[in-house]
Batch of 3 targets.
Target 1
Amino acid sequence: MFSYTVKRLLTVIPVLLGMSLVVFFMIRAIPGNPAQVILGQKATKEAVEALTHKLGLDQPWYVQYIKYLGGLLKGDLGESLRTGVAVSQEIWPYLAATLELSLAAMFIAVVIGVNAGIISAWFQNSWFDYVAMVLALVGVSMPIFWLGLMEQWIFAINLDWFPTSGREDVRNPIEPITHLYVIDTLMQGHTDQFVQTLQHLVLPSVALATIPMAIIARMTRSSMLEVMKSDYIRTARAKGLSMFWVVYKHSLKNAIIPVLTVIGLQMGLLLGGAILTETIFSWPGIGRYIYEAIGYRDYPVIQSGILIVAMIFIFINLIVDLLYAAIDPRIKYN
Amino acid sequence: MKKKWLLTMLTFLLVAATALAGCGKSEQTGGEKTEETDKPTTLVYGRGGDSVGLDPATVTDGESFKVTKNIFDTLLDYNDGDTSIQPALAEKWEVSPDGLTYTFTLRKGVKFHDGTDFNAEAVVFNFERWANGNADTFPYYGSMFGGYKNDEGHVIKEVKALDEHTVQFVLKRPQAPFLKNLAMVPFAIASPEAVKKYGDKFGENPVGTGPFVFKEWKRNERIVLEKNKEYWLEGHPKLDKLIFVSIPDNSARLNALLKGEIDIMEDLNPSDLAQVEGNKDFQVFKRPSMNVGYVGLTVTRGPLGNKLVRQALNHAVDKQAIIDAFYAGQAQPAKNPLPPSIPGYNDAIQDYPYDLEKAKQLLAEAGYPNGFEMELWAMPVPRPYMPDGQKVAEALQASFAKIGVKAKIVTYEWATYLDKVAKGEADAFLLGWTGDNGDADNFLYALLDKDSIGSNNYTYYANDELHNILIEAQTVSDENKRNELYKKAQEIIKEDAPWIPLVHSTPLLAGKANIEGFNPHPTGTDKFTKVQFK
């Protein structure tokens, strides 16, 4: 187990290196000079040339790449071309915002998705099963953009339950400590702000959770159906064990393995796919950070942002693999 | 047993949801109550993007200027509704008859936010700082004043402090728009002490003399400004706090306004106009138009090199129909590259009427009786002068098809789009321009002179006669003579038809009904000194 973990961690290095190379070249392949974009449509030619030179963008690509790698080894993610602030310094608040949003979304997706899947499987072909699976189908095919605006319209404006956008009330701002506001507000003992934070989380995380929730529900259902056909479950039911016991103690343990894979994958997709949600709900997260950086051709931000998201993705997959072993002792890593 | 478990689960979810929702409601109504008893003093302004930096001299983007306009003052300012000049930090000024010496009397008793005095030395310090820079550090300075200290074209010979409150500018040659340039946000006067103290970080710690004091900046989220209690304009500003928040999506921003999370929003989609106008809790603000949206016809590409072809395309566009369909009527048809609000506008010019027969005839004359094929580039992002590039392009495509010109719509991501258009890779393309200082030079020379090819003259149109006129107009200080030159320039442009000027749009903003004193300025940067809640 330990050696497996170490081995898995070592494979991360070439993956990240390859990743950095691909990203480095891809963003330079798209047309658009960062200096021109930063200075705007009205800048003079001289200004653009001067800035290009200052940013070192007139150097050959390999010089730029080696400098970038050298910086990475020293933990230097570069400076944002647009703002001149070190990426390592400004990235955490964005990352924290996305983590908070993704974790909330994942929580909703897993709790509702897994349970809906279980209930659908247990009451196969019941009305609940049909309704849940139709909803899941709708959920998968719903554009987040549209869903987000609809949520705002119904739950924020008409019902007046939740705020439409942002992470906090700008008139009553939160003093960040860790930048995970759920934790920060609790640490400061500001219950009103804690509630406010949760309220801000509801609509965007539901929007973000919709697709993974639907996928998890369908996966859980089919996986449960498979397991429930097996002999040992029939035995358990014949012994007169309660439904709760049979489902959550006997079936779920075996059914959950493929679901875990899906959850792991979805968590990674959530990080990358948060861009639309973050735009609609003006959530100041990493997705929007990278997206705006692409608009400005802010190379260091794009490179480092994607690299960090990739690292998190790899890390989550590692956790999922390790969880397999914890849940099912038959899985061995040698 | 089964049912009981299900029931427990559902009840739990329901309770959790209503608890959260309930909290929201009570808090919201609580907030409204206080608003009823005493009027709010914090204004939240919702916009599409964040600022790049808060040292106005170092940036070129409008989002930065919107904020710095309220932190800093300039020597002169524009009038409330137009770009004529009024006093600001300079109370009065004198111009020598030869147009070479400008003497300004400065306002007394003004202090920077850090407590230091505003005086003639501070003005000299700022101008010295910019003149010693370069195109990279202070981009606007060079383009408005003809370069930097040792450049040949640099207009300002000298800036001297005659006494504590008198400052004199000596120019090398007359510059007609000199006063208008001084009123531009990039030339706002910063605290010399703060500039020395913060150095490169001044853009994150701006200190000026303006109505609001910089308080906090959370990038991509908000910028918070607080009232300058010692502002020189007696009894102003009215607000205690001014917060700029970024909400990128126009529809989401409208939702935030309707919910009361923000007080004013910019860039209201014309299609949402009716929704706001029909709601008594809100009002619509119309920004006076100082822009142009146009179709550029790149003169170096195929049939578009032929003047008759370009004139034919001009005849094939029904501008009013486009305005009715995509601008909710909030625009006027453009016949010149200049908007009518700018001195020098030539109203005598006759636009090419919408006339398909005439268009076909011109095409035949040019040797394309059966039309031709070309690309029509559509902007991927909404702009004040072009709310929906894709739809406008589709309408144009349909119009052109009627005279046999098959236009294929092409689009790229915004930065790529500008890059490729600047390189002359587009046949016909949609674009626009918002004026900086209300001067004709800022439109005609910047967009259509041969000197501007490679920067903002995207059609690669070059006409020597036009060039001579525009250069002459830059140095003439007689306002009337200047306007005559610009009128002539517009005639030449009309005849050569490198553009199809489409519209001068009226950018829309929406806000709460109880806001007063907010008059959107044509330059797109607003000062909130006089704004308050009723």
Note: The CA atoms of residues 58 and 139 of chain B lie 6 Å apart.
Target 2
Amino acid sequence: MTTGSGRWSDAGAMLGAAARWLTTPLLPEDYLGWVNPLWSAAQLRGRVEAVRAETADSATLLIRPGRAWAPHRPGQWVRVGVDIGGVRHWRTFSLSSPPRRDGRITITVKAGPDGFVSSHLVRRTRPDTLVHLGLPDGRFVLPARLPRRALFVTAGSGVTPVMAMLAQLAAAGMTSDVVLIHSAPTRDDVIFGTALRAMAARFPTMRLHERHTREHGRLKAADIPELCEDWADRPTWACGPPGFLADLAEHWDTHGIGAALRQESFHPLRYAEDDGDGGRVRFTLSGKTAEAEGGTPLLETGEAAGVLMPSGCRMGICRSCLTPLGEGTVRDLRTGELTSGEGKYIQTCISTPVGPVELRR
Amino acid sequence: MATLTDAEADELARELDELRREVAGDLGEADAKYIRRMIAVQRGLEAAGRVALFGSSRRWLWWGGTACLTVAKVLENMEIGHNVMHGQWDWMGDPKIHSTTWEWDAAAPAYQWKHSHNVLHHTYTNVLGRDRDLGYGLIRMDPRQKWRPVYLLQPFYNLALAALFEYGTAWYDLAAQVEIGESSEEELRRQAGDILRKVGRQVAKDYVMFPALAGRNAPRVLLANLTANVLRSIWAHQVIFCGHFPGDVQVFEEEVLEGETRGRWYQRQLLGSVNIEGGPLLHVMTGNLSHQIEHHLFPDLPSNRYVRIAPQVREICARYGLPYHSGPLVRQVGRHWKRVVRMAFPGGR
């Protein structure tokens, strides 16, 4: 049997190689993706099939991923690329559904007050839109052997990865004893509110505590023992804004059970303030670091630090110095324009750091 | 050369920088659609041409297929390849339509061409001894180039160069590096290997694989592919030679590069470039190099924008008393050939 399938895959590989000769310098992929965007294995895409409002400012997007998608584990996240005004923007979102039999995935997005991409996804995305996808990633998941007891502590849209885990537990009959403590401004702001309440009503082994902060004030770690007496005996998954998680981590640490707390946080992209260019530049491939003054191009900073920096004309016209940006923000010395975003290519000959910057060189 | 004072040159730089900023700030959905549609049209034409040629025993399918393939190759090289590799579409953040990843359907490997074109030609435009696009090291284009008897033949080998332009450009960057003498022998050997591999794949595709698939139509397909490649080469050669040589464009001595300000750089680009007048079809088929002046001022602004900023550039030129060389295709081709013929003989104007 194995020889048979080997022969088939050999034939497939030969066919692939022959096709590559015919499409050179493109790949057969480029034509496949042209016929159907979801066929491309090189560029993973997904088609938005439905957009369902969750609250006034959040929505769940049902997406059919292309064939290169790999099944995820509940609690994992995915990078999503959206074209807005001709420019591709990448953001990370939790997958809010467990793996489904029909192969669809869902992400649930909350439109932040200055969330350019999240607002676009929540308010202006229509079914049939194509989005770009990364592969699922992240270690904020349930263990292979489901825990007997578990505590989930979430705030705002932090409930999305936990929703996927709860759905997984529900699918397994909710044999675990589960407590969810969730915090949101009002009852109407609870993302998945209806589904969570229905789930809690259906399974006696699940308890739901909603904390409406507009009315009862912010949820603090110190409140948790009151809401869940045996909190210290439960493996805990927490997700929410950075300040919220820091508070929880401190609480768990002071009780000496920090290892029982698993956290996931998405901090929004930090745009640098307008005061003070310059900053520490870390060259991640060569492992070198340099302090850069504002106004000095990154190309010169790198060369002075002994990093091999490709360059051409140094005038910003030839683009041979393009380098992928890691974390941080840079300023175009010609136009004053700021650029940030991991993976964006910047021209080191005309860019200066604004705050700490990482470059893949 | 300077008809402008230093202060005027600085003011010119400020105005052109401002124009650049306006366009860069205005890029959006419509521009992204333009290049994606252009790529789709190009791939569609190529696929249609290849398919039609399988039936090329019928005369009309041979002609139709060859025409589609020729147009596809012209678009691929000029409006798409040349411009993507300039980084004109990098702003979209699409890794497929990006100067760092694009490879084109021509003999020259993309990374080598980007060096010879984006770095050498665009930085040192029309500087004798630095810009090898001035005659590509083969043709005497300026009276200051020393005359040698071999130049008497240059009208003929300029024709041959046109037909084989694709292969000329493939070896062109390597020749430039040998001339500069900066690259090690090992590095040159590696690059020569890259060229041979690329040429091998290109030749295999057009002259072996596709003919072989056509069975008894193989010779017809081979001839069609050869025709498309040669016509594309001749067209590219004409357009490129029209960009910097017809009429009275200026050629500069190396001294201009010393301490050249941004304004003086802009001025040199203006004085050394020539536009071709025509309609939208001409602009697309030349990869918008019909707007050579705008392209040389702003090589990384998307090509579809040149036509719209041309009136502003022309107006700026008029205000500063700078020439704006422009003329219809036939006249520009005529002038470029006149120069090739004139410079074949000793002396010169």
Note: The mean pLDDT of chain A is 90.
Target 3
Amino acid sequence: MSDQTRRIDIDVPVLSRVEGEGALEVHAAGGRITDLKLRIFEPPRMFERFLEGRGYHEVADAVARICGICPVAYQMSAVQALESIFGVEPGDWVRAMRRVFYCGEWIQSHALHIHLLALPDFFGYDSALAMAADYPGEVRRGMRLQALGNELMALFGARAVHPVGARVGGFHHAPKAADVADLRGRLEAAIPEAEALARWAAGFDLPDNGQEFPCLALRNGADYPMNRGRIAASTGLDVPVAEFADHVTEEQVPHSTAFHARLDGEPYLVGPLARLNINADVLPAATRALLADTGPALPSTNPFHSLLARALEIHAALVEAVRLLGDYRVPERPYAEVAPRAGTGYGATEAPRGVLWHRYETDDAGRVTAARIVPPTAQNQARMEEDLRLSLEARGLDAPDDELRFLGERVIRNYDPCISCATHFLDLTVHRR
Amino acid sequence: MGKAGDEAKPRVAVHKFSSCDGCQLAFLDLGEDLVRLAELVDFVHFAEAGPVDPEAETDIAFVEGSISTPGEAERIKRIRANTRYLVPIGACATSGGIQALRNLHDGKQWLADVYPSPEYVESLATSTGIADNVTVDYQLWGCPVNGRQVLAAVRALLWGVDPVPERDKVCMECKRAGHVCVLVSRGQPCLGPVTVTGCGALCPAFGRDCYGCYGPAENPNPDALGRRFEGLGLMREDVARRFHFIHSHREPLHGAGLRWGGGGGRGP
């Protein structure tokens, strides 16, 4: 660095309302950013390593522990990959109920992110509880939606965090028809609440920094993707799940424990806005009608539309769960029999935060011999850095440090990064020249 | 949340170490009760919910997650020094969690297996519970802990009485609830006979075997249960993996798993 560099160190207290320890280092010259690093420190827990040697029936309970907010996503990608190895056909009932189970997680995770993590940024509070005093109706509505999502997960999994109902082949247990009918009625009653949430969110004053970025999501052309689809991207990519790793490369960078993923060499977006950009035509009709009223115009190039995309997905998940539970019956057996065999299998599902891809190899007894997991937040990290660069430059690097830091935090939170990290320090260091 | 300088209310922190964030959800999923709780206590640090003051003096510090990096080993000492009650919550904080499986192997080698450039990553070879590092006052077991447990603990401490730890085995709760025994009737390798209550016997209620996510009960006999599992047709290595899963680093499960051949054959 030249001696004209004015270096400012700002110790920001813990970056709140995200999961993750971030540090942001910015080098600027002549009003332009020359180098930017978003540091993410996730103490490695080495799941891929300790899955080796585990029986196939243990994997769902193990991988749930990767994330307390989206355990269903990990379970669904894992059982799908293992079923593809063993040639298991779980059948229509299991497929429909897995979608319902997943709807629960989307509702819970999106409602939690919107209300507890993101909204305070939009209204200038430091927490949802502080906000609840002035917006009691809105915050409580969010908590009610979150609770409904949790109940739906518990219906199939006995509890919402690390649910115990999922297994290779289907479910351990089918809920009673009376319990399903009761919850379905309450889900249906919540659809207007989700609609009101989306209409409210559509009115927020958003930073608009139109950006060009490729989007990647599952697509099957028949329904909004959760458990089924090929890997599709706005670049025209359309490949089977097994070929994901041919197009997405992961690299380890010195400043982060999360691998950086790139799509054919470029940063790209996964998650609610990417799904909406790629799959709006297969939303449930009621959600499509709502989208026509609320926007955004698609494809959206404003990452801050992610919050509205989450609200629309809550609505879609409620509509889907109500539809799929409409003719619920208790099956003779809630799972298909499994006969393990050796092989390699792939699974990809849409976690609340985006595509979650798993690859497993098993031996004859169905024990895992190799595992690879690509979570959505690792895929979004390069895109987050690019967004930070564009957003900070658009704001102007002569802005006060506090303002740049707040904008940086807001940009990061908008991606709903799900990084189980030790601490949450965002140290913004701006080197100006 | 709490207002600065609100001296009348107990000051509470929720800290995170190496974990999945699932135990913090015991608070964040409380809904209306979370709003009420925030009226009773002053949340001075709870990063995921908003308030940030990691060095604050507190009456109760709840800690989620295990100690798995050099930085965490230092940070927990400061938290201990700054709080009256230190309460680890969940499997990671109480016994190192599922990621403590690396303690049975060569943790440094594992890091090299997962990361092409392990030198970029700060990590300890082991993952350990909070009580292995500093003195703790109470512990809440479970993977994850639930809202009932955290509210009961807060409520007890607010009244100035000790929270009462669970000691019973899952079998007791299972029988009280009237579930059919999955070990006897279906031949499943259920860990209920050695696992502590607190979950609500959820797995047997769903017709499946308990996998021990709440950790060992009082006076368990894992070896007798292991022999029973062998009688069901499990190989010794399968029995070892039953004991070495969510609470592999905690006795007597740790030792039992080693006796049944787990942990790459490394002795205790």
Note: The first strand of chain B starts at residue 11 and ends at 16.
